[in-house]
Amino acid sequence: MTANPSRAGTADTEATPPGAGTQGWRRLNVRMLLIYPIQELPRALPALFGLVVAGSGRGNGQAWSLVGIAIVVGLGATRWLTTTYRITPDQIQVRRGLLRRRVLTVPRDRVRTVDVTAHALHRLLGLARVIAGTGQSDREGDAGVRLDGLTAAEAAGLREELLHHRAGPGAPAAPTATAPAGPGSPAAPAAPTATAPAVVEVELTHLRPAWIRYGPFTLSGVVTLGLLAGFLSQIVNEAHVDPARFGLLRDLMDQLAEAALWLAILEVVVAVMVVVAAASTIGYVLAFWRFRLTRHSGGTLHVTRGLVTVRATTIEERRLRGIEVSEPLLLRAVGGARCIAIATGLRVGRGAERGGTLLLPPAPRSEALRVAAAVMRRREPVTAPLRAHGPAARRRRYTRALPVCAVAVAAAAALWWWAGLPAWVWLGSLALLPCGALAAADRYRSLGHAVVDGDLVSAAGSLVRRRHVLDCEGIIGWNLRQSFFQRRSGLVTLTATTAAGRQAYHVADVAAPEALRVAGEALPGLLAPFLATQAP
Fold first, then answer.
1. Are 481 and 497 in contact (CB under 8 A)?
2. Residue 67, pLDDT score
3. Which domain holds residue 403?
4. What is the pLDDT of residues 471-482, one digit of tens each?
5. Three-state SS string across 362-386, please?
6. pTM (2 decimals)?
7. Is residue 395 one of the residues assigned to a domain?
8. Per the structure, how many domains does the chain have?
9. Bridge-partner residues for 201, per DSSP?
10. Local structure of 292: helix, strand or coil
Protein backbone atom coordinates (compact mmCIF):
# COMPACT_ATOMS: atom_id res chain seq x y z
CA MET A 1 0.00 0.00 0.00
CA THR A 2 1.35 3.41 -0.94
CA ALA A 3 0.00 6.46 0.80
CA ASN A 4 -0.70 9.72 -0.92
CA PRO A 5 1.87 12.18 0.53
CA SER A 6 -0.54 15.10 0.17
CA ARG A 7 -2.76 13.61 2.88
CA ALA A 8 -1.13 13.07 6.22
CA GLY A 9 -2.75 10.16 7.96
CA THR A 10 -4.91 9.01 5.04
CA ALA A 11 -4.35 6.61 2.18
CA ASP A 12 -6.22 6.36 -1.12
CA THR A 13 -5.18 3.11 -2.77
CA GLU A 14 -6.19 0.62 -5.42
CA ALA A 15 -6.48 -2.40 -3.11
CA THR A 16 -7.69 -3.21 0.35
CA PRO A 17 -4.95 -2.49 2.90
CA PRO A 18 -3.71 -5.60 4.69
CA GLY A 19 -4.40 -6.12 8.33
CA ALA A 20 -7.14 -3.53 8.45
CA GLY A 21 -9.47 -5.41 10.74
CA THR A 22 -11.94 -8.23 10.70
CA GLN A 23 -15.24 -6.48 10.26
CA GLY A 24 -16.98 -7.16 6.96
CA TRP A 25 -17.82 -4.62 4.32
CA ARG A 26 -21.27 -3.02 4.54
CA ARG A 27 -23.37 -1.20 2.00
CA LEU A 28 -25.19 2.06 2.41
CA ASN A 29 -28.91 1.92 3.06
CA VAL A 30 -30.91 0.54 0.15
CA ARG A 31 -33.22 3.55 0.28
CA MET A 32 -30.41 5.56 -1.33
CA LEU A 33 -31.50 3.97 -4.61
CA LEU A 34 -34.33 6.53 -4.58
CA ILE A 35 -31.99 9.46 -3.91
CA TYR A 36 -28.96 8.70 -6.09
CA PRO A 37 -30.83 9.12 -9.42
CA ILE A 38 -32.06 12.54 -8.27
CA GLN A 39 -28.50 13.51 -7.30
CA GLU A 40 -27.17 12.31 -10.65
CA LEU A 41 -29.81 14.27 -12.59
CA PRO A 42 -28.07 17.72 -12.56
CA ARG A 43 -24.83 16.23 -13.92
CA ALA A 44 -26.73 14.29 -16.58
CA LEU A 45 -28.90 17.20 -17.76
CA PRO A 46 -26.66 18.19 -20.72
CA ALA A 47 -26.60 14.61 -22.00
CA LEU A 48 -30.34 14.21 -21.49
CA PHE A 49 -30.99 17.45 -23.34
CA GLY A 50 -28.86 16.23 -26.25
CA LEU A 51 -30.73 12.93 -26.39
CA VAL A 52 -34.11 14.66 -26.40
CA VAL A 53 -33.06 17.09 -29.14
CA ALA A 54 -31.58 14.31 -31.27
CA GLY A 55 -34.65 12.13 -30.78
CA SER A 56 -37.05 14.98 -31.57
CA GLY A 57 -35.32 15.52 -34.91
CA ARG A 58 -36.09 11.91 -35.81
CA GLY A 59 -39.61 11.90 -34.41
CA ASN A 60 -38.97 9.57 -31.46
CA GLY A 61 -38.04 12.05 -28.75
CA GLN A 62 -40.20 10.29 -26.15
CA ALA A 63 -38.34 7.01 -26.55
CA TRP A 64 -34.96 8.73 -26.20
CA SER A 65 -36.24 10.50 -23.07
CA LEU A 66 -37.02 7.12 -21.53
CA VAL A 67 -33.55 5.93 -22.48
CA GLY A 68 -32.01 8.92 -20.76
CA ILE A 69 -34.04 8.33 -17.60
CA ALA A 70 -32.98 4.69 -17.59
CA ILE A 71 -29.34 5.76 -17.85
CA VAL A 72 -29.70 8.12 -14.88
CA VAL A 73 -31.38 5.42 -12.78
CA GLY A 74 -28.64 2.96 -13.81
CA LEU A 75 -25.92 5.40 -12.76
CA GLY A 76 -27.58 5.80 -9.36
CA ALA A 77 -27.87 2.03 -8.91
CA THR A 78 -24.24 1.54 -9.94
CA ARG A 79 -23.13 4.14 -7.43
CA TRP A 80 -24.94 2.30 -4.65
CA LEU A 81 -23.77 -1.16 -5.72
CA THR A 82 -20.10 -0.17 -5.92
CA THR A 83 -19.91 1.75 -2.60
CA THR A 84 -19.13 -0.19 0.56
CA TYR A 85 -17.53 0.73 3.85
CA ARG A 86 -16.32 -0.75 7.09
CA ILE A 87 -15.18 0.58 10.43
CA THR A 88 -12.47 -1.29 12.28
CA PRO A 89 -11.06 -0.53 15.73
CA ASP A 90 -8.26 1.46 14.06
CA GLN A 91 -9.50 2.63 10.65
CA ILE A 92 -12.39 3.84 8.53
CA GLN A 93 -12.43 2.45 5.01
CA VAL A 94 -14.64 3.38 2.07
CA ARG A 95 -14.48 1.41 -1.17
CA ARG A 96 -16.06 2.77 -4.34
CA GLY A 97 -15.74 2.69 -8.11
CA LEU A 98 -16.67 0.30 -10.92
CA LEU A 99 -13.98 0.57 -13.58
CA ARG A 100 -11.42 1.99 -11.19
CA ARG A 101 -11.72 0.47 -7.74
CA ARG A 102 -10.51 2.78 -4.98
CA VAL A 103 -10.25 2.32 -1.21
CA LEU A 104 -10.00 5.37 1.05
CA THR A 105 -8.44 4.51 4.41
CA VAL A 106 -8.40 6.97 7.31
CA PRO A 107 -7.03 6.20 10.78
CA ARG A 108 -9.70 6.82 13.39
CA ASP A 109 -7.36 8.98 15.47
CA ARG A 110 -7.17 11.42 12.52
CA VAL A 111 -10.88 12.24 12.70
CA ARG A 112 -11.31 15.84 13.86
CA THR A 113 -15.02 16.52 13.33
CA VAL A 114 -18.16 14.64 12.38
CA ASP A 115 -20.82 16.46 10.34
CA VAL A 116 -24.26 14.84 10.06
CA THR A 117 -26.55 16.41 7.43
CA ALA A 118 -30.08 15.40 6.46
CA HIS A 119 -31.57 17.11 3.41
CA ALA A 120 -35.28 17.08 2.67
CA LEU A 121 -35.15 13.78 0.74
CA HIS A 122 -32.93 12.22 3.39
CA ARG A 123 -35.34 13.23 6.14
CA LEU A 124 -38.28 11.91 4.16
CA LEU A 125 -36.62 8.49 3.97
CA GLY A 126 -35.08 8.58 7.46
CA LEU A 127 -31.49 8.85 6.19
CA ALA A 128 -28.52 11.12 6.83
CA ARG A 129 -25.13 11.97 5.37
CA VAL A 130 -22.04 11.65 7.58
CA ILE A 131 -18.77 13.44 6.82
CA ALA A 132 -15.84 12.63 9.10
CA GLY A 133 -13.42 15.52 8.67
CA THR A 134 -9.68 14.93 8.95
CA GLY A 135 -8.71 18.60 8.72
CA GLN A 136 -6.32 18.28 5.81
CA SER A 137 -7.28 21.31 3.71
CA ASP A 138 -10.13 23.32 2.24
CA ARG A 139 -10.05 21.56 -1.11
CA GLU A 140 -13.21 19.75 -2.08
CA GLY A 141 -11.33 16.49 -2.57
CA ASP A 142 -10.00 16.61 0.99
CA ALA A 143 -13.37 16.88 2.69
CA GLY A 144 -12.75 13.63 4.61
CA VAL A 145 -14.71 10.39 4.75
CA ARG A 146 -18.17 10.76 3.23
CA LEU A 147 -20.92 8.22 3.91
CA ASP A 148 -24.08 9.33 2.16
CA GLY A 149 -26.91 6.99 3.09
CA LEU A 150 -26.92 5.89 6.74
CA THR A 151 -30.04 5.72 8.83
CA ALA A 152 -30.46 8.46 11.41
CA ALA A 153 -29.72 6.04 14.25
CA GLU A 154 -26.59 4.73 12.52
CA ALA A 155 -25.36 8.27 11.89
CA ALA A 156 -25.84 9.29 15.53
CA GLY A 157 -24.12 6.13 16.75
CA LEU A 158 -21.20 6.62 14.37
CA ARG A 159 -20.72 10.19 15.53
CA GLU A 160 -20.58 9.09 19.17
CA GLU A 161 -18.24 6.25 18.30
CA LEU A 162 -15.73 8.30 16.33
CA LEU A 163 -15.46 11.32 18.60
CA HIS A 164 -16.07 9.80 22.02
CA HIS A 165 -13.82 6.81 21.24
CA ARG A 166 -16.31 4.12 22.20
CA ALA A 167 -16.14 0.55 21.07
CA GLY A 168 -16.96 0.14 17.40
CA PRO A 169 -19.78 -1.95 16.08
CA GLY A 170 -17.32 -4.64 15.02
CA ALA A 171 -15.51 -4.85 18.36
CA PRO A 172 -15.94 -8.10 20.24
CA ALA A 173 -18.46 -8.11 23.04
CA ALA A 174 -17.29 -8.24 26.62
CA PRO A 175 -17.02 -11.86 27.78
CA THR A 176 -19.55 -13.06 30.31
CA ALA A 177 -19.20 -16.14 32.55
CA THR A 178 -22.21 -18.32 33.33
CA ALA A 179 -22.34 -21.48 35.44
CA PRO A 180 -24.56 -24.34 34.40
CA ALA A 181 -27.60 -24.45 36.62
CA GLY A 182 -28.66 -27.89 37.74
CA PRO A 183 -32.12 -28.88 38.85
CA GLY A 184 -33.01 -27.03 42.01
CA SER A 185 -29.80 -25.05 42.07
CA PRO A 186 -29.98 -21.27 42.31
CA ALA A 187 -29.39 -19.28 39.20
CA ALA A 188 -25.82 -18.12 38.70
CA PRO A 189 -25.34 -14.40 39.13
CA ALA A 190 -24.83 -12.49 35.91
CA ALA A 191 -21.28 -11.40 35.29
CA PRO A 192 -20.77 -7.63 35.29
CA THR A 193 -20.55 -6.10 31.87
CA ALA A 194 -18.63 -2.97 30.93
CA THR A 195 -20.87 -0.12 29.96
CA ALA A 196 -19.85 3.18 28.43
CA PRO A 197 -20.23 6.16 30.75
CA ALA A 198 -23.29 8.26 30.12
CA VAL A 199 -22.64 11.46 28.18
CA VAL A 200 -23.74 14.58 30.03
CA GLU A 201 -25.01 17.37 27.78
CA VAL A 202 -24.89 21.05 28.84
CA GLU A 203 -26.67 23.61 26.68
CA LEU A 204 -24.64 26.73 25.97
CA THR A 205 -27.23 28.56 23.86
CA HIS A 206 -30.20 28.07 21.56
CA LEU A 207 -32.07 30.16 19.01
CA ARG A 208 -34.54 32.73 20.32
CA PRO A 209 -37.32 33.82 17.94
CA ALA A 210 -36.36 37.46 18.59
CA TRP A 211 -33.04 36.86 16.84
CA ILE A 212 -34.83 36.56 13.49
CA ARG A 213 -34.89 40.36 13.39
CA TYR A 214 -31.16 40.21 12.54
CA GLY A 215 -31.88 38.19 9.40
CA PRO A 216 -32.48 41.18 7.06
CA PHE A 217 -29.08 42.64 8.02
CA THR A 218 -27.07 39.59 6.99
CA LEU A 219 -27.64 40.22 3.24
CA SER A 220 -27.45 36.47 2.65
CA GLY A 221 -30.29 36.84 0.16
CA VAL A 222 -28.16 38.84 -2.29
CA VAL A 223 -26.39 35.77 -3.65
CA THR A 224 -29.60 33.76 -3.80
CA LEU A 225 -31.44 36.49 -5.67
CA GLY A 226 -28.52 36.96 -8.03
CA LEU A 227 -28.47 33.29 -8.93
CA LEU A 228 -32.26 33.22 -9.29
CA ALA A 229 -32.26 36.33 -11.50
CA GLY A 230 -29.56 34.85 -13.73
CA PHE A 231 -31.44 31.57 -14.02
CA LEU A 232 -34.73 33.29 -14.86
CA SER A 233 -33.11 35.58 -17.42
CA GLN A 234 -31.53 32.61 -19.15
CA ILE A 235 -34.89 30.83 -19.30
CA VAL A 236 -36.55 33.97 -20.70
CA ASN A 237 -33.86 34.32 -23.39
CA GLU A 238 -34.03 30.66 -24.38
CA ALA A 239 -37.83 30.70 -24.51
CA HIS A 240 -37.89 34.02 -26.46
CA VAL A 241 -40.39 35.48 -24.01
CA ASP A 242 -40.80 39.26 -23.73
CA PRO A 243 -41.46 40.17 -20.06
CA ALA A 244 -42.98 43.48 -21.13
CA ARG A 245 -45.95 41.59 -22.57
CA PHE A 246 -47.22 40.66 -19.10
CA GLY A 247 -49.62 43.14 -17.54
CA LEU A 248 -47.97 43.71 -14.16
CA LEU A 249 -44.45 43.97 -15.51
CA ARG A 250 -45.61 46.24 -18.33
CA ASP A 251 -47.30 48.59 -15.86
CA LEU A 252 -44.20 48.72 -13.66
CA MET A 253 -41.92 49.45 -16.60
CA ASP A 254 -44.26 52.16 -17.87
CA GLN A 255 -44.36 53.75 -14.42
CA LEU A 256 -40.56 53.78 -14.17
CA ALA A 257 -40.25 55.22 -17.68
CA GLU A 258 -42.60 58.10 -16.87
CA ALA A 259 -41.01 58.95 -13.49
CA ALA A 260 -38.05 61.25 -13.01
CA LEU A 261 -34.64 59.56 -13.15
CA TRP A 262 -33.81 60.12 -9.46
CA LEU A 263 -37.26 58.85 -8.45
CA ALA A 264 -37.00 55.76 -10.65
CA ILE A 265 -33.58 54.95 -9.17
CA LEU A 266 -34.95 55.43 -5.65
CA GLU A 267 -37.92 53.16 -6.33
CA VAL A 268 -35.70 50.42 -7.75
CA VAL A 269 -33.29 50.64 -4.80
CA VAL A 270 -36.12 50.46 -2.25
CA ALA A 271 -37.73 47.52 -4.04
CA VAL A 272 -34.42 45.64 -4.19
CA MET A 273 -33.78 46.32 -0.49
CA VAL A 274 -37.20 44.98 0.47
CA VAL A 275 -36.79 41.84 -1.63
CA VAL A 276 -33.25 41.22 -0.33
CA ALA A 277 -34.37 41.73 3.28
CA ALA A 278 -37.24 39.28 2.83
CA ALA A 279 -34.98 36.70 1.15
CA SER A 280 -32.33 37.11 3.88
CA THR A 281 -34.92 36.60 6.60
CA ILE A 282 -36.25 33.46 4.93
CA GLY A 283 -32.69 32.19 4.52
CA TYR A 284 -31.97 32.87 8.20
CA VAL A 285 -34.99 30.85 9.28
CA LEU A 286 -34.18 27.96 6.92
CA ALA A 287 -30.54 27.79 7.99
CA PHE A 288 -30.74 28.40 11.75
CA TRP A 289 -34.16 27.27 12.90
CA ARG A 290 -33.86 25.04 16.00
CA PHE A 291 -30.23 26.13 16.41
CA ARG A 292 -28.66 24.65 19.52
CA LEU A 293 -25.09 24.64 20.86
CA THR A 294 -24.25 22.12 23.56
CA ARG A 295 -21.16 20.79 25.32
CA HIS A 296 -20.84 17.06 25.95
CA SER A 297 -18.91 15.50 28.78
CA GLY A 298 -16.88 13.54 26.23
CA GLY A 299 -15.04 16.75 25.39
CA THR A 300 -17.03 17.84 22.33
CA LEU A 301 -19.14 20.77 21.18
CA HIS A 302 -22.31 19.87 19.30
CA VAL A 303 -24.14 22.24 16.92
CA THR A 304 -27.53 21.39 15.41
CA ARG A 305 -29.54 23.65 13.11
CA GLY A 306 -31.80 23.77 10.08
CA LEU A 307 -35.46 23.68 9.12
CA VAL A 308 -35.62 21.83 5.80
CA THR A 309 -32.03 20.56 5.82
CA VAL A 310 -30.99 19.53 9.33
CA ARG A 311 -27.28 19.70 10.04
CA ALA A 312 -25.41 18.48 13.13
CA THR A 313 -21.70 19.23 13.58
CA THR A 314 -19.57 17.84 16.39
CA ILE A 315 -16.21 19.44 17.23
CA GLU A 316 -13.61 18.02 19.58
CA GLU A 317 -12.67 20.66 22.14
CA ARG A 318 -9.06 19.56 22.09
CA ARG A 319 -9.01 20.72 18.45
CA LEU A 320 -10.31 24.16 19.43
CA ARG A 321 -7.63 26.84 19.14
CA GLY A 322 -9.66 29.99 19.61
CA ILE A 323 -12.75 31.95 18.80
CA GLU A 324 -13.78 34.74 16.44
CA VAL A 325 -16.48 37.34 17.10
CA SER A 326 -17.54 38.76 13.74
CA GLU A 327 -19.55 41.97 13.30
CA PRO A 328 -20.46 42.90 9.70
CA LEU A 329 -21.25 46.59 9.22
CA LEU A 330 -25.04 46.30 8.90
CA LEU A 331 -25.25 43.74 11.67
CA ARG A 332 -23.08 45.92 13.91
CA ALA A 333 -25.35 48.89 13.27
CA VAL A 334 -28.24 47.04 14.96
CA GLY A 335 -26.10 45.63 17.78
CA GLY A 336 -25.61 42.14 16.36
CA ALA A 337 -22.66 39.77 15.99
CA ARG A 338 -21.90 36.12 15.36
CA CYS A 339 -19.44 33.67 16.87
CA ILE A 340 -17.11 31.41 14.85
CA ALA A 341 -14.78 28.64 16.04
CA ILE A 342 -11.07 28.60 15.25
CA ALA A 343 -10.34 24.88 15.19
CA THR A 344 -8.30 22.34 13.30
CA GLY A 345 -10.23 20.06 11.01
CA LEU A 346 -13.01 22.49 10.06
CA ARG A 347 -13.21 23.59 6.43
CA VAL A 348 -13.44 27.38 6.16
CA GLY A 349 -12.78 27.89 2.44
CA ARG A 350 -16.46 28.07 1.53
CA GLY A 351 -17.43 30.27 4.43
CA ALA A 352 -17.94 29.75 8.10
CA GLU A 353 -21.63 28.90 7.90
CA ARG A 354 -21.14 26.26 5.20
CA GLY A 355 -17.88 24.94 6.62
CA GLY A 356 -19.24 24.05 10.03
CA THR A 357 -17.33 26.63 12.10
CA LEU A 358 -20.34 28.74 13.09
CA LEU A 359 -21.04 28.53 16.82
CA LEU A 360 -23.68 31.26 16.96
CA PRO A 361 -25.79 32.76 14.14
CA PRO A 362 -26.40 36.52 13.98
CA ALA A 363 -27.59 37.41 17.47
CA PRO A 364 -27.20 40.22 20.03
CA ARG A 365 -23.56 41.16 20.58
CA SER A 366 -23.84 40.49 24.30
CA GLU A 367 -24.95 36.93 23.55
CA ALA A 368 -22.05 36.44 21.11
CA LEU A 369 -19.56 37.54 23.79
CA ARG A 370 -21.20 35.28 26.37
CA VAL A 371 -21.09 32.26 24.06
CA ALA A 372 -17.46 32.98 23.13
CA ALA A 373 -16.51 33.12 26.80
CA ALA A 374 -18.45 29.92 27.53
CA VAL A 375 -16.74 28.06 24.68
CA MET A 376 -13.28 29.32 25.69
CA ARG A 377 -14.09 28.70 29.39
CA ARG A 378 -12.73 32.16 30.25
CA ARG A 379 -14.14 35.62 29.72
CA GLU A 380 -11.13 37.93 30.04
CA PRO A 381 -9.71 37.47 26.48
CA VAL A 382 -13.15 38.07 24.98
CA THR A 383 -13.89 41.33 26.83
CA ALA A 384 -10.44 42.68 27.73
CA PRO A 385 -9.57 46.19 26.42
CA LEU A 386 -7.09 46.21 23.56
CA ARG A 387 -3.92 48.26 23.06
CA ALA A 388 -4.20 50.97 20.37
CA HIS A 389 -1.75 50.99 17.46
CA GLY A 390 -0.75 54.65 17.68
CA PRO A 391 -0.72 57.78 15.47
CA ALA A 392 1.26 56.17 12.63
CA ALA A 393 -1.39 53.49 12.14
CA ARG A 394 -4.11 56.17 12.24
CA ARG A 395 -2.39 58.22 9.53
CA ARG A 396 -1.98 55.10 7.41
CA ARG A 397 -5.75 54.51 7.53
CA TYR A 398 -6.44 58.00 6.16
CA THR A 399 -3.67 57.94 3.54
CA ARG A 400 -5.05 54.70 2.16
CA ALA A 401 -8.72 55.77 2.05
CA LEU A 402 -8.74 59.43 0.98
CA PRO A 403 -6.51 59.19 -2.15
CA VAL A 404 -8.78 56.47 -3.58
CA CYS A 405 -11.84 58.67 -3.02
CA ALA A 406 -10.06 61.67 -4.56
CA VAL A 407 -9.19 59.66 -7.69
CA ALA A 408 -12.84 58.59 -8.04
CA VAL A 409 -14.00 62.23 -7.76
CA ALA A 410 -11.40 63.35 -10.32
CA ALA A 411 -12.49 60.63 -12.74
CA ALA A 412 -16.16 61.67 -12.42
CA ALA A 413 -15.23 65.33 -12.99
CA ALA A 414 -13.16 64.41 -16.07
CA LEU A 415 -16.06 62.44 -17.55
CA TRP A 416 -18.36 65.41 -16.92
CA TRP A 417 -15.90 67.79 -18.61
CA TRP A 418 -15.01 65.71 -21.67
CA ALA A 419 -17.80 63.14 -22.05
CA GLY A 420 -20.80 65.25 -21.09
CA LEU A 421 -21.69 63.26 -17.98
CA PRO A 422 -24.47 64.94 -15.94
CA ALA A 423 -23.07 67.41 -13.43
CA TRP A 424 -24.90 65.83 -10.51
CA VAL A 425 -22.79 62.68 -10.93
CA TRP A 426 -19.46 64.28 -10.10
CA LEU A 427 -21.05 66.62 -7.57
CA GLY A 428 -22.55 63.60 -5.82
CA SER A 429 -19.17 61.85 -5.92
CA LEU A 430 -17.85 64.54 -3.56
CA ALA A 431 -19.70 62.65 -0.80
CA LEU A 432 -17.04 59.95 -1.15
CA LEU A 433 -14.51 62.16 0.65
CA PRO A 434 -16.33 62.38 4.01
CA CYS A 435 -17.41 58.76 3.67
CA GLY A 436 -13.77 57.75 3.18
CA ALA A 437 -12.74 59.76 6.24
CA LEU A 438 -15.44 58.08 8.33
CA ALA A 439 -14.36 54.65 7.09
CA ALA A 440 -10.72 55.41 7.95
CA ALA A 441 -11.70 56.52 11.46
CA ASP A 442 -13.78 53.40 11.95
CA ARG A 443 -10.98 51.14 10.71
CA TYR A 444 -8.55 52.67 13.19
CA ARG A 445 -11.09 52.41 15.98
CA SER A 446 -11.36 48.68 15.26
CA LEU A 447 -7.59 48.11 15.46
CA GLY A 448 -6.21 46.62 18.65
CA HIS A 449 -4.24 43.77 20.18
CA ALA A 450 -3.36 42.22 23.53
CA VAL A 451 -1.99 39.07 25.12
CA VAL A 452 -4.41 37.96 27.85
CA ASP A 453 -4.23 34.74 29.87
CA GLY A 454 -2.14 32.95 27.28
CA ASP A 455 -4.30 34.10 24.35
CA LEU A 456 -3.34 36.41 21.50
CA VAL A 457 -6.21 38.83 20.93
CA SER A 458 -6.35 40.92 17.74
CA ALA A 459 -9.09 43.04 16.20
CA ALA A 460 -9.43 44.80 12.85
CA GLY A 461 -11.90 45.60 10.08
CA SER A 462 -14.60 48.08 9.20
CA LEU A 463 -16.98 46.44 6.74
CA VAL A 464 -16.54 43.30 8.84
CA ARG A 465 -15.06 43.91 12.27
CA ARG A 466 -13.44 40.78 13.65
CA ARG A 467 -12.00 40.03 17.07
CA HIS A 468 -9.82 36.91 17.13
CA VAL A 469 -8.90 35.14 20.35
CA LEU A 470 -6.14 32.63 19.52
CA ASP A 471 -4.63 30.26 22.07
CA CYS A 472 -0.87 30.87 22.10
CA GLU A 473 -0.27 27.12 22.37
CA GLY A 474 -1.77 26.77 18.91
CA ILE A 475 0.71 29.22 17.33
CA ILE A 476 3.43 27.40 15.41
CA GLY A 477 5.32 30.40 14.02
CA TRP A 478 5.54 34.12 13.42
CA ASN A 479 5.78 36.16 10.23
CA LEU A 480 6.84 39.81 10.30
CA ARG A 481 6.18 41.68 7.06
CA GLN A 482 6.84 45.28 6.02
CA SER A 483 5.60 46.91 2.84
CA PHE A 484 7.32 49.91 1.23
CA PHE A 485 5.00 52.42 2.92
CA GLN A 486 5.09 50.57 6.24
CA ARG A 487 8.86 50.93 6.36
CA ARG A 488 8.48 54.70 5.97
CA SER A 489 6.09 54.74 8.93
CA GLY A 490 8.03 52.33 11.14
CA LEU A 491 5.20 49.80 11.14
CA VAL A 492 5.07 46.03 10.59
CA THR A 493 2.37 43.39 10.30
CA LEU A 494 2.80 40.54 12.77
CA THR A 495 1.18 37.30 11.59
CA ALA A 496 0.58 34.34 13.88
CA THR A 497 0.71 31.08 11.94
CA THR A 498 -1.45 28.20 13.14
CA ALA A 499 -2.94 24.98 11.82
CA ALA A 500 -6.47 26.08 12.73
CA GLY A 501 -9.06 28.27 11.06
CA ARG A 502 -7.66 30.67 8.47
CA GLN A 503 -4.15 29.51 9.43
CA ALA A 504 -2.87 33.10 9.64
CA TYR A 505 -4.05 35.82 12.04
CA HIS A 506 -2.66 39.34 11.71
CA VAL A 507 -1.76 42.16 14.05
CA ALA A 508 -1.65 44.86 11.37
CA ASP A 509 0.29 48.14 11.36
CA VAL A 510 1.93 47.88 14.76
CA ALA A 511 5.29 49.43 15.73
CA ALA A 512 8.22 47.04 15.28
CA PRO A 513 9.27 47.03 18.98
CA GLU A 514 5.66 46.37 19.99
CA ALA A 515 5.42 43.49 17.51
CA LEU A 516 8.53 41.89 19.00
CA ARG A 517 7.17 42.41 22.51
CA VAL A 518 3.86 40.75 21.64
CA ALA A 519 5.60 37.80 19.97
CA GLY A 520 7.93 37.39 22.94
CA GLU A 521 5.12 37.56 25.47
CA ALA A 522 2.95 35.09 23.56
CA LEU A 523 5.71 32.56 22.86
CA PRO A 524 8.83 33.37 24.89
CA GLY A 525 12.10 32.59 23.14
CA LEU A 526 10.71 31.66 19.73
CA LEU A 527 12.08 34.76 17.98
CA ALA A 528 15.26 35.02 20.05
CA PRO A 529 17.51 33.13 17.57
CA PHE A 530 16.47 35.53 14.79
CA LEU A 531 17.12 38.79 16.66
CA ALA A 532 20.50 40.47 16.28
CA THR A 533 21.97 41.96 19.46
CA GLN A 534 24.08 45.09 19.20
CA ALA A 535 27.47 44.89 20.91
CA PRO A 536 28.16 47.64 23.49
1. no
2. 66
3. 391-443
4. 999 999 999 999
5. EEEHHHHHHHHHHHHCCCHHHHCCC
6. 0.78
7. yes
8. 2
9. 296
10. strand
